[in-house]
Write a structure and sequence with these properties.
The complex is a heterodimer of chains A (255) and B (286). With 255 residues, chain A is α/β, with parallel strands linked by helices. Chain A has helices at 47-55, 78-83, 101-111, 117-127, 144-156, 174-191, 202-208, 226-230, 237-246, 249-254, and strands at 3-14, 21-32, 36-40, 61-67, 70-71, 84-87, 162-166, 194-199, 211-216, 219-225. Chain B is 35% helix and 24% strand. The radius of gyration of chain B is 19 Å and the shape is globular. In chain B, β8 (178-182), α8 and β9 form a beta-alpha-beta unit. A 6-stranded mixed sheet of chain B has the order 7-8-9-3-10-11, with helices on both faces. In chain B, strands 1, 2, 4, 5 and 6 form a 5-stranded antiparallel sheet that branches. Chain B is of the alpha/beta class and 286 residues long. Chain B starts with 8 loop residues before the first strand and ends in a 28-residue tail after the last helix. The chains are: A alpha/beta (255), B alpha/beta (286).
């Protein structure tokens, strides 16, 4: 199978002159159709910056990005957003506080000129486990987990092929995190989706992904299968350190 | 267990009731616990009342909250009977609190060294030069490599991990008996988190402070603390030795532990917490 997403020598820099920071410094990876690919690393390693370049929120990048056979330019057409959608970290910040769920979901339908809005909204709300009762609620009437479900519904409603997930559960309690992770697994089975998941939580990445790229200082140190990661077969000392730290405090002491 | 015969803090039947537009919310509902010279973890989900518990000890609750308890004993005095002036004396000197996010807890326009020195001078009548000496020692104690340089920095010039270590230095310099740390490492990266916990662990065990460690992270608390209290809907539903947390018996604790994604085995489906209404008022397991 050929790769659905291919990234080659991607570079993103912020600032000029002495203050120039190479946030993403020559990164390359490929993701097959139907795969879940993880990007892990600590804050400031460039993982979110890669997602922003992929989804078109950041136009100041150089390199090659190919999605579904199409070489992407910094500026994206409307049709691109029918193919690729994103779910953000903070469900409290990513929904308009004065728009009902209905208004939020109608916007992509209107932008893409999709038919039969009522059927689509009903279907997508059921799919994310909310049901039609939630259609005319405001965000302040929803819990954090329910808000994230609305954000997922908004991404799903245009029937994309690729979902970019930027720390989708790090603002949620662990019990709610389990529900949302299950939901991602379920809709991937139904809708035949490809995910790129950015997270600092190796537990979440190990649960969701098939392959993982470990990032540090804007570069990918290594890309490895999740089984190798869980069995501690990392080549880089930094990956091992990350893994050890994620196992909890006692492991650090015994190390 | 390291529990001393006489506890530093003993709380009996603590209630926190918050008045809102929709009536009175009972954030904490009649909890009792003791803290000796040990590390006690309080875990639970958002809204379980763990932060309110920590804040009510230092009387840092919002105006709309009414705090009542049979007794809140701290080294022989009842904190509830103290007036505001005496309470100010307890804060910092007797009990200090480490907040979640150093970015919002440090004064952005004062050099970090001066802030730590101020915390010391408020409680000890010493010359500026001595306060500075003590501050530099404290910065070294929280493993900051170049204390003289860091002393002169402003909060925006330090990283998150260093900021949190500066907070710890500031809270420990008056030598309190009890430290309340509310999610002190949640805003930090995993590798930095371990360094900060190491610092906290060393200081607490060397100086014999008591520590209340409030966190939502069960794995972290299991490894770091001596004893754990699990809160649900304003009550302590279970208390156990931290080492035994993974054998917890309460349905809520078990549910939380099961819902965590694991690094040692893969599961297609994560068990979802099924909230039993009986947990709200059921028996306390210990």
């Amino acid at each position: 199978m050929s790769a659905l997403i291919e990234v080659n020598d991607l570079r993103v820099a912020f600032g000029h002159g002495a203050a120039r920071v190479n946030a993403v410094d020559g990164v390359g990876f490929s993701v097959d159709a139907g795969e879940v690919f993880g990007l892990v690393g600590e804050s400031g390693c460039g993982k979110t910056t890669i997602l922003k370049a992929l989804c078109g929120l950041n136009r100041a990048w150089t390199g090659e990005i190919t999605i579904a056979g199409q070489r992407l330019t910094p500026r994206r057409e409307k049709s691109f957003y029918k193919l690729v959608q994103m779910v953000f970290q903070d469900p409290y910040g990513s929904l308009h506080p004065r728009h009902t769920v209905n208004t939020t979901l109608m916007e992509p339908i209107r932008i893409h000129g999709l038919d039969d809005p009522n059927r689509r909204i009903d279907k997508v709300l059921r799919e994310v486990g909310l049901g039609p009762d939630f259609r005319f609620r405001y965000p302040h009437q929803l819990s954090g987990g329910q808000r994230q479900r609305v954000a997922i519904a908004r991404a799903l409603i245009v029937e994309p092929k690729v979902l970019l997930l930027d720390e989708p559960t790090s603002a949620l309690d662990v019990s709610v995190q389990a529900e949302i992770l299950n939901l991602f697994a379920e809709i991937r089975r139904i809708e035949d989706l490809t995910y790129i998941l950015v997270s600092h939580d190796l537990g979440v990445v190990a649960h969701m992904c098939e392959r993982v790229a470990v990032m540090n200082h804007g570069a990918i140190l290594e890309t490895l299968g999740v089984d190798d990661l869980m069995a501690n077969r990392c080549r880089h000392a930094y990956s091992r350190e990350l893994l050890e730290s994620s196992r909890g405090y006692a492991h650090e002491l015994s190390a | 267990m390291t529990s001393a015969p006489e506890p530093i803090l003993s709380v009996e039947d603590l209630w926190v009731r918050i008045t809102t537009h929709h009536g009175v919310v009972e954030a904490v509902r009649g909890i009792s616990f003791e803290v000796g010279r040990e590390k006690v973890g309080i875990v639970g989900e958002s809204g379980s009342g763990k932060t309110m518990t920590g804040r009510s000890i230092l009387r840092l609750t919002p105006k709309s909250a009414a705090v009542t308890a049979k007794r809140m004993g701290f080294k022989g005095t009842d904190l509830l009977s103290l007036n505001e002036a005496r309470m100010r004396d307890v804060r910092g000197n007797g009990i200090s609190m480490i907040m979640q996010d150093p970015k919002y807890s440090l004064n952005p326009v004062i050099r970090v060294g001066e802030q730590i020195a101020e915390a010391f001078r408020v409680h000890h009548k010493v010359a500026k030069a001595e306060a500075r000496e003590r501050t530099l020692e404290m910065l070294a104690a929280v493993r900051i490599r170049d204390p003289n340089r860091v002393y002169r920095l402003y909060p925006h010039e330090v990283s998150g991990g260093m900021g949190q270590r500066i907070m710890i230095a500031m809270m420990l310099i008056p030598e309190p008996d009890l430290i309340i740390a509310d999610e002190p490492t949640s805003a930090l990266d995993v590798t930095v988190r371990m360094q900060v916990l190491d610092v906290l662990n060393d200081l607490v065990s060397q100086r014999g402070h008591g520590l209340i460690f409030i966190s939502h992270d069960l794995n972290l608390v299991a490894g770091f603390c001596d004893r754990v209290l699990i809160m649900y809907a304003g009550r302590i539903v279970e208390s156990c030795a931290a080492a035994d947390l993974h054998n917890a018996r309460h349905g809520y604790t078990r549910g939380l532990l099961n819902s965590l994604p694991r690094l040692d085995r893969r599961r297609d489906h994560l068990p979802v917490l099924d909230r039993d209404p009986a947990w709200r008022d059921g028996p306390v397991l210990s």
